[in-house]
Structures are given as C-alpha cells and as structure tokens.
Design a protein that fits this description.
Elements lengths: L2 H10 L9 H4 L2 H8 L3 H19 L5 E5 L3 E3 L4 H7 L4 E5 L9 H5 L2 E9 L2 H16 L3 E2 L4 E2 L8 H4 L3 E3 L7 E2 L8 E4 L2 E4 L2 E2 L2 E3 L4 E3 L3 E3 L10 H22 L12 H6 L3 H9 L4 H10 L1 H5 L6 H17 L5 H21 L27 H17 L4 E4 L3 H8 L4 E5 L10 E5 L12 E7 L18 H12 E13 L4 E3 L3 E3 L2 H7 L4 E9 L2 E3 L9 E8 L2
Parallel strand pairs: 3-7, 8-12, 15-16, 15-18, 16-17, 18-19
Antiparallel strand pairs: 1-4, 2-12, 3-4, 5-6, 9-10, 10-11, 13-14, 19-24, 20-21, 22-23, 22-24
Helix pairs in contact: 4-7, 16-17
Amino acid sequence: MDSFTYDTLREMNLKHVELIELKDFEDPELLIAKKNRKIVEYYFTCTPSLPLYILKKNKDLEMIAYLDADLFFYSSPEPIYREFGNNSIMIIPHRFLPSKKYQEKINGIYNVGMLVFRNNSEGIKCLQWWRNQCNECCCLDTQAGKVGDQKYLDEFPKLFKNVHILKHKGAGLAQWNIRNYTIKKINDVIYIDNDPLIFYHFFNFKIYPYSRWLPPCPWNYYTEKTLAYNYIYKPYIKSMQKAQKLYPFPYGTVQRPPLAAQLIGVTIRELKNLIKKIPGANKALFYYHAFFPKLILLTRMGLRRIFFLKMTILSIRILKSKPSRFKKIFLLKEFLADLKKYKKINKNNIFVFSTGNLKPCIFDKTNDTQIDAVCFYQDTWCAKKIFEQKPSHHYDIGSNVEMVGIISQFVPTTMIDIRPINLKLDRFLFIKGNILSLPFENNSLKSISSICVIEHIGLGRYGDKLDPWGSEKAINELKRVLAIDGSLYISLPVNTENIIYFNSHRSFTRDCILSLFQSLKLMEEKYIYKTKMYNNYDPAKGFGTGLFHFKKI
C-alpha cells in the first residue's frame, strides 16, 4: 500500500511471495473512490478489490484468504481450512464478551481479520458485492452504521449461499474476546479452552519510543494476565524486535502520544491540575517538570508502579472532597482493602474488571439512607395533591423533572422550563419557555405546579436574566395564566425576614408570601423544618420551606 513497505519486502526476497504494487490493481473505479475519501478509508476500500483482482488474474486458484497485517500465527492454519470444507465464503465473528455484546451493533458481528473466498460463482459474487459497497462508502461513522469495510460482513450470510462462520476458538482471538476463554500450554502448544491457538489479532498494538512495545490495553484486562503475556504477547514482541533489527524502520512511523498519560490513564493536563491543588504546588510542579523524563522509565519498573500511581491520583481526588480529612483517610483505606479483597475473590468473567474503570463511592456507605428531606416532602406533597384533584391535564413550570415525569404517568402533563430536556416519554410534553412570559392565554390553565422555582428567578443561577423583581414577576405570570377555579401548587423558602442569597435563592416571610398571592385563596399550607413536615408556620424554627395550595376564585 506504500513504497516503503514494497521496497522493504522486495529487499527481503521472501520465498513463495509475489509482490503486488498498489498501481497494479487500481482500476478506474478505485481511482475515483481515492479522490473522495481519506487515505485510511481508501485502505479499507481496497480490501475486497485485492483478493478479487488475484482470483480473476489466477483462474487456477482454488481459493484465497485475506489476512490483516496485524495477525500473528502460532500454529498451522490447517484446522481452519478443514472446518471450512467445501463452503464458498468464510467469516469469523468477533465473539465479544457478554458485557460487550452491544459492540456488535457498532463494529459488526464479524471481523475482517481473516476471510476466505473460494474461486467459484458464489465467492466471486460476494467479493464483487463487497467491493461495490466499499467503493460507494468506506467511511468510519459508527452513528451511520459504517465501520470502513467491516460492517458489510454482517450481510454475507443473508445474501450469499455456503457462508461458513468459523467456530474454532484459536482463530480470531483478540483483546475483545480473550477473557471468554481459558489459556493453557500443553507440550509447547497453546490452547484456548480446548482449541490450539492458531493466530492472534494484535489490533491497535502500538510502538512507542523508549518502551517500544505496548499492548492496546492493560495486562489486567485478561483473564490470566501472566499467561496472556508470556504465551501470546511475548513471542510477538520478540519477533517484532527481531524484525526491527533486521529491517529498521524510522521512528516517524511510530506513535508519539504523551507516554506517561497513555500508561497512567489520565491526561498530562489532568495530572498537572491535580498537583496544583496540593499544598506546595509550585515546588511539586518544579519536580514534576524536572523529573518528567524519569517518569517515562516507569514502563521498565513494572505495572505495579502504574497501579500505585493510579491509586495515588485517585487518593488525591478523594482527599479533596467534602468530609473531614480523618474520615476520608479511613474511608480510603477501607476502599483499598475492599478492592484488594474483591480482586482476590473475583472469578466472574462476564464483566470487565480493571483498575482503569474504578469509580470509588466511598461516602455512600452510611448507616441511614441519605436523602434531601425538602425534596422528598415537597415532591410527594405536590404529587399527592395533583392525584387527589385528578385534572384532565396538568402544567408544571420548572420543577424537578423526575417528579414531573412520575406525575405525567398518571395525569397527562406539559412541562415548561428555560433549559431544554432531551427526553421522550408518553403523556409527557416539554415546551421551552420562561416563567416570566409563559406561552398561554389568560385564565387558561386549570392545574399548575412550580415547586422550588420562584425563589431563584432573577438571580442568574440557571442562565436567567438578572432581575431584582424576578420572583414578583414570576408570581404575577402564574396568577395570570391560572384559570378560574384552577389550582396552583408552589413551594418557597420561609424565614423570619426576606433575604437574598445571591446566585442561589431568596427566602420569604409567611406574611410576604400571602401578600404576593392575595388575589388567590389559600387552600392548604405545610412547612418543612429540617427533616420533618408541619401543618403550621413556626418562625421560632428559623429557615424552612413552605408548601402552598392556592385557588383562583
């Protein structure tokens, strides 16, 4: 596919190898496709054209196998052809882990790694169809269902006869399925379950300067990490190193991302930001920059250092969170002990378990269920009132969307909020709008709720315009659209005086609230103080939340 590779292979003078240059099989259709896509997409486009070109040029060939360049063979492929038998087409499934089964919809059921086509009408017809599809589109757009040349393989069993789906577990082994199997070695033969390993697909295996060779995922991705490395990766790395010595290639062809970031699992920027938040940040950053080259050498010190560094960064994040330092240290110690114990007892291979996916929730282990008492009481109170009234349709202005969603399943509900909600639910309609200018006629809505909303208006918290009279204007707009004999359910913070907590909310005295709604009839009032709900206002209890049911008479 490029002159460097062609010249290198020509110098190697390999036996039984016939070299084909790209220009040899590029026909007018390929050249047209070459002009309208990226180079990597053009490589994918050429996949079916090459075996089709060879079969048409060599009529005496019985069959042809396509192999990706990143396959490495450990034993003879004879069992593959024996299983293939007299079929016309052979494809190999990805065999994703059960937890990654959804990847079939994204990347396809089958992998392009190895394919076999018999030189008969069905094999040629399949290759021609595949070539036409790739010539038309070979882009990498998973949202459009396009994954280069690969996703088209899903159609082979549907469109063509004598398509064989390979069952041999030792062919098509790769990072996405290795955890499905047990690895063992008997008499110098590597077995995947009970099938001998034929080839491994080293997809996304990269070469880095300094460390030179790294797999595309951490060692602990594998079921038997030591066996996977010793039996599978190590022979491949040694072969590649040997080949590199014989036929050196320039380091312009290797990957050059920040190596430490690749290993540690965080970006260099994130690491620097974490260091900045530690006391003595400037000194720490000096040492960070001074000794960064030595950080690269961690690759030679084993993955235990990488795990330790990950745990250190994780610890910094935890120690910077809210609870007291002593409590955080205790909980962190408990988390690490649980992690160590879980790794030891874990035998469940259905799920991927690696240090790269840790998500510590160390503050959730509490004696009581942690809950916001105000949200609990005001949401249940509002829902109860609406269920009792049984309106034909309910309208909510800016309340908690979870509460509104539940109400909508009993009463058809329209929600209005300044911020769009990208969710769809039966009986739930969303309209983007502003409480200061509601898109409804005067006296038109029979049932309205606005829970924990009015106190925020005009303080800029949710992107609304600053307005010292925001709450008063919102109340007037609610009263305007409320129908005669209609019900309005609201909640507001109550206090011993009217106070602005800028950018958060306002609090109101009971007298102030009643004066703002004096044109409506008060039907019910409840008050939440700390973790209890009361029937009466009690200024002696200080700050609380008032729940009010008003009616327009």
